[in-house]
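Hello forum,

I keep getting stuck at the same step: I have a sequence, I want structure tokens, and every attempt I make locally crashes halfway through. Rather than fight my setup again tonight, could one of you with a working pipeline run this one for me? It's a single chain of 149 residues.
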Amino acid sequence: MSAHTATISWSRTTPDFAYDTYDRTHRISFGGGIAVAASSAPAFLGDPAKVNPEEQLVAALSSCHMLTFLAIAAKKRLVVDRYEDAAEGWLEKNAEGRLAVTRVVLRPKVSFAPGATVDAAMLADLHHKAHDNCFIAQSVKTDVRVEPA
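Reply #2:
Ran it on my machine without issues. Output:
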């Protein structure tokens, strides 16, 4: 249906190329023209001031869930005024003993416009449908849980 691109660029900036000293900073350029500075996670000698792949995966899952949720709400004519998520992912050993982002918890907090009637059951159903239709969630083995605030 569609193609999506990202270009990753890295160049050695250190005189040596030893595991403990090479710079992990790189640039990610997306198809729409946005570029971000990235690195590995601090636990893997990366720069904590730059985005890392694990954070990118958590953000992609959260963003996809939100966008899917908003689309479903709009189609149901439920006006959403605000959506926030404090998503968290865990890098840990999976069943095969390999490091993986094994689970991600999304904690969306949704505010609807005055007059919108959304009870707890309907909100849970909206999140369930958003999860089932999120392209990213359907693309990963990670256990993704939604715990609405």
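The CA atoms of residues 88 and 105 lie 5 Å apart. If your local run keeps crashing, start a new thread with the error log.
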